[in-house]
Amino acid sequence: MEKRYLEIDEWKIVEEGWDPANHMKSESIFSIGNGRMGQRANFEETYSGNTLQGSYVAGVYYPDKTKVGWWKNGYPEYFAKVLNSVNWIGINISVDGEQLDLNACAVSNFRRELDMQHGLLSRSFDVKFTNGKTLRIDSKRFLSLVRDEVGAIAYSFTPVNFEGAVVVTPYLDFDVENHDANWEEKFWDSVEERVAAQKGTVTAKTKKLDFQVSAAMRFEVAEGDQHITLYPNTDQREKFVSNTVELRVEQGKTYTIYKYAGITSSMNYKTKDLALAADTLASEAMRDGFDALYEEHANAWLEKWSTSDIIIDGDPAAQQAIRFNIFHLFQTFTGVDPRLNIGPKGFTGEKYGGSTYWDTEAYCLPFYLSTTDQSVARNLLIYRYNHLQKAIENAEKLGFTNGAALYPMVTMNGEECHNEWEITFEEIHRNGAIAYGIFNYVRHTLDRDYLHEYGFEVLLAISRFWAQRVNWSEARGKYVMLGVTGPNEYENNVNNNFYTNKMATWTMAYTLEVIDELKENHPDAYAKLVEKTHFDEETETKEWHEIIANIAIPFDDKQQVYLQQDGFLDKDLRPASSLAVEERPINQHWSWDRILRSCFIKQADVLQGLYFFEHQYDKATIRRNFDFYEPMTVHESSLSPCVHVILASRIGYGEKAYELYLRTARLDLDDYNREVHEGLHITSMAGTWMSVVQGFGGMKIIKEKLVFEPLLPEGWKALHFMLRWRGAVLKVNVTHSTLKVENVSDVEAEFHYGPHVHRVAANGEIKLELTK
Amino acid sequence: MEKRYLEIDEWKIVEEGWDPANHMKSESIFSIGNGRMGQRANFEETYSGNTLQGSYVAGVYYPDKTKVGWWKNGYPEYFAKVLNSVNWIGINISVDGEQLDLNACAVSNFRRELDMQHGLLSRSFDVKFTNGKTLRIDSKRFLSLVRDEVGAIAYSFTPVNFEGAVVVTPYLDFDVENHDANWEEKFWDSVEERVAAQKGTVTAKTKKLDFQVSAAMRFEVAEGDQHITLYPNTDQREKFVSNTVELRVEQGKTYTIYKYAGITSSMNYKTKDLALAADTLASEAMRDGFDALYEEHANAWLEKWSTSDIIIDGDPAAQQAIRFNIFHLFQTFTGVDPRLNIGPKGFTGEKYGGSTYWDTEAYCLPFYLSTTDQSVARNLLIYRYNHLQKAIENAEKLGFTNGAALYPMVTMNGEECHNEWEITFEEIHRNGAIAYGIFNYVRHTLDRDYLHEYGFEVLLAISRFWAQRVNWSEARGKYVMLGVTGPNEYENNVNNNFYTNKMATWTMAYTLEVIDELKENHPDAYAKLVEKTHFDEETETKEWHEIIANIAIPFDDKQQVYLQQDGFLDKDLRPASSLAVEERPINQHWSWDRILRSCFIKQADVLQGLYFFEHQYDKATIRRNFDFYEPMTVHESSLSPCVHVILASRIGYGEKAYELYLRTARLDLDDYNREVHEGLHITSMAGTWMSVVQGFGGMKIIKEKLVFEPLLPEGWKALHFMLRWRGAVLKVNVTHSTLKVENVSDVEAEFHYGPHVHRVAANGEIKLELTK
């Protein structure tokens, strides 16, 4: 962990004092977004120091030519990059010909603040130019949660010790770079620039795929609340427009540039309408004004918090962290558009490209299921449904037939982007997570219609994949699954990974259940699906039954634990605690072969399976496997601690649970992995939420029933979280001795605690004493 | 196999008729080289069609920045590229302002010929310019085997139907590209250009590592044997010099440009002397003249053939092929310089980079041992000795200690260049081949001094590596070796690969033998070595003994075969013959995961072990394993068929042996894999030699004794090959009924046939009837 430089505050992230060494981290941490767009906390004004410029438009990407050492048949031709897009925030400020540049000028009283409750980024500082002239700067900006193609900035400056001229240049710049471009290319070509007094638009298109994005700006300047009449000089060049205004300023007075941007993409408009639409948005925003825009935006945030907030009583650092995580999850994905998904870095960086990993189903879905309208989770599922044909084509490339689907490891549009054989072709458990997502959605919402409308086709295609992916081992008299990479990516190309085999047979079993349900309740719909999918029910389901009954499940009789894969016990088994500090993280110090042949585990693998299928395993089994695997786990994935927190809570390992929770909760705020400058770990933030709600809060679904089994960390006085459950909204309050469930909706709900079932009436409340 | 376009001739490769589609193939096939330099059969004159320009100087390479999709700790920073170097052959010809260009002019009577007996490339054709003027061209060139920094060209033209002006421009051009540059850079920077009438030099250096190469040219022009006085215009620019001469020519007369090049590199000269040395070489070459140079060169080739030729009576295509292979092996490596080695493409292309793979010890060493002075093989071994320190450092990067060495997979200077984890870090059996090379050299030559002078240190370092690379499996009660890639690269990251485990324990056992021998015969030298290597004999050898005694060797009791690796029998076992034709080669049609989990074998793996250690296995064992593995082998490495030819011959599978031989013998001449345009498969040519001599000729070494066990293909009347054996030179002649061994040296030799030992007196001869 880096030295903490941010202040602890329950609702805010605060950076006091200017240290350029922290700036790129803060650019990530203070990012703003509204699900449609995102913006790193880059400065409005010129900055000549180290920076990662990032302005992202959801769904717009670049298929950068794949870079590999040695090409292997089947590799994808491209890797979809999250695209740095138009710089819409830019406002250059100069005094006597010198640019305001925090890397060049003297800075004091610097403060940066992210108000998570209202979604506002603000910044203030004093800046002294070479000639001694000093400005006080105060800037605020947000990306509207209500008008999700609008951004607004109020950039104020006050001459502290002079009067005279200040030159301001608001601009739009599309001549931007992607840090991670494989061949050092720029990805955008100019389409059109237009500029006039106090406004301008730039439109650009991607060099491949012809995505178009337009940005429009409008701006005005006021002294206090007095509007100033401007006579700007306009400028334009390829991919760039600006206005330059020389303002005559008086000492001690405050001048504010209000800049409004409309940003539209060809995801949502015809290209011919794009620039006009952007300009209309900017123009309407300016008409309504910064304060009104902000008010509607802040209210929308308060509304989000009202059904999603978590309160941790007694641990301000944890309180700040959990809100930070919830805040960024909502900034990344609001669920209104089923074409969008949750990238590992959201809108906070370029790393990992793509938008969708198995993180979505395995880690993010529970968060959205519990905190938002069920349409949001449904849209996440429909995203995969819409990619089914591409997943089938992807499987065909790998030799599969008969409508078998392999969903991609990383994708933007359903096509595979990853290019390491051991992941791309072998980390196939991702397919299982997508099936599990359907199961999890249906048991949480009881939206059973989803199954015949969408779910069955996906489940069938995945089951078909599994059925073809195993083979019969004559020698062993079992079905085996050879050559896979499990969730623990510190093993590659292994045979009979417990987790993958489990996911495979579980998918088939669940699909069989769904078939029975459809035949019973929706026979007509089912008949149509059978025809559409050329489903030979008798033959195919017979094969599934055989595989389910005869799959190889590696198990050690002596220790009574599931084995991560064939041959796991041949390893030199030793605890991660035996590793020297200077060898950790091992992925930065060991060569890959050494990692692979070691016993050390990157993230939950067998335990991931036990977490998903907790309803199938008793506590003794969970404990034995936890005791065997967790000590060998190095948790070098940000997705690792959460599952362990939950299982540890379940088996009463409170101290262990809290220790692991600390590794996930403030991962980015405290920059544990020294990589936060590249962006935030968005999807693992959902894992942190799971740690709190499913771990300490003890929320779980067992046989379609809601169950609480809380275990509060010792230092916490109380935990309060919200839960949407089949139409009801529950406020759950856990202390060391009580469990209170308040139903703040008009829908009755029921939950289990211990052996008892409890009904909470609409707008009712139940308070229980916890058994020890 | 492509349609054969080359004529069958026992000593020549002949291409009749001009088809541009064949040109790049011919550029590879007709390459010339002398161990110090190589030159693809590019045209002297301008050629605007598809071409791979290639002019290579041994030992000079470029460390191109590694290109990988996802960086893994331990990857090398660079990949050493074989460097396309100065174009020294260039002679532009123009008539009335039009360039002679076979891609633009009308061509007839084209013939290209490579005289393998004398090492001469020649080419003739008629070329008609747009204006109807026709030239007859006749060009010859060679790289002198005697003066290995000299190339000579005699380029003749005869005006067929006109008199007037022909403009000729001999030049040197260092402004060249590497086709395989990762970032599309040029690798050479100019150092100096000088030009004067009838001569010029260019010197360039590599952008990294500062290799320098100078090329000098001298030229003159004659009409018949009449020297023509020239008044050339000189030209120079960066990395380029030329002379341009306008010749007044008469119809029907023949004009010849004699161009001599001297090419020197900083491998062999101080940089300040480089250009002068090159010019001196060119000047001396011109002084001696083309005919004299050629005579000494051709005689040197005849001398080489006198102890290496193979005669196949009754199969002209096989006859041509085996000479083609021997010819290119000698063009690639002559053994005079222990800093040089045998790249997979020799001097015929860029592909695979590097100069040295395990091919050298496993496939090439036997050829050089049998056909050249033993100093040549010794130099190949010393090459590795000289890289020992780097191999130790390489192992340290992977976490090994105490002087353990891991030799690189691909190298120029001892540093690892390969960048795929499953190869770089896991294909560690290469280490065993290097130990085996020492064993093979010593048993062939009885040069036991090599062991204390060089061999022991290498053996010790490799044994130390193996001892650290295994681990004790508590569950199995055996030492295991996890996470390796065997010779069959269609399996990655497997456990207990039979071949690798065998090589490991064999290395330790052989090192123990060598220790005993050194202690007995060279106790003082041994004591010094112990000190130098900090060898704790007692502890370390005790550990080796334990590992040897307790290594896991996967074996199937039921079928009594060694298993390629743990779990091999879990695969869907089926013969390669069950693959659809359109799926082959599978590496071009299947995704990598499918290849990995299939049973299909790229090249000999278990069988490679049985080949190396034939003296330890009985014929029934070889037959059982051959019967089990060969049917699953797809032979998609050029190194695969040879080992199978040898084993098939040994177990009496004559038809199978010949079928497989056909796949290796004319691999390049008939372009089986449709890739000969990229260069020739130099190292597998040595495998072809092994197929003939060790397979059909039945030559083997069992317990340090020379044994013949021939099995001639049915269609062959007789096979004649040469063999250097412990100072003797043997001519071996095999027919279907006789074995004749003629000793053409002054050293007595002995060999075994069946149960009997036979002594062949100096200059004597023994002829035996073969038992059926």
Structure explained in plain terms:
The structure is a homodimer of 772-residue chains. Chain A is an alpha+beta fold. Among the domains of chain A are: 301 residues, Beta-galactosidase, Chain A, domain 5 (Distorted Sandwich), CATH 2.70.98.40; 204 residues, Glycosyltransferase, CATH 1.50.10. In chain A, a hairpin with a 5-residue loop joins strand 16 and strand 17. Chain A is globular and about 85 Å long. The mean pLDDT of chain A is 96. Chains A and B meet through strand 23, helix 14 and helix 15 of A and strand 23, helix 14 and helix 15 of B.
Main features:
34 strands; 20 helices; 33% helix; homodimer; Glycosyltransferase; 772 residues; Beta-galactosidase, Chain A, domain 5; alpha+beta
Number of strands of chain A: 34
CATH homologous superfamily classification of the domain at 6-306 in chain A: Glycoside hydrolase, family 65, N-terminal domain
CATH class of the domain at 6-306 in chain A equals Mainly Beta
Identify the quaternary structure here.
homodimer
Summarize the main sheet of chain A.
11 strands, antiparallel
* Distance linking N and C termini of chain A: 35 Å
Determine the number of helices of chain A (DSSP H or I, runs of at least 4 residues): 20
Bulk shape of chain A: globular
CATH architecture of the domain at 6-306 in chain A: Distorted Sandwich
Query: Structural class of the secondary structure composition of chain A?
Result: alpha+beta
Helix percentage range of chain A: 25-40%
Q: What is the residue-mean pLDDT of chain A, rounded to a whole number? A: 96
- Gyration radius of chain A (Cα, Å) is 27 Å
Q: Largest interface: which pair?
A: A-B, 49 and 48 residues
Q: If you consult CATH, what is the topology of the domain at 6-306 in chain A?
A: Beta-galactosidase, Chain A, domain 5
Unreliable spans of chain A are: none
Strand % of chain A is 25-35%
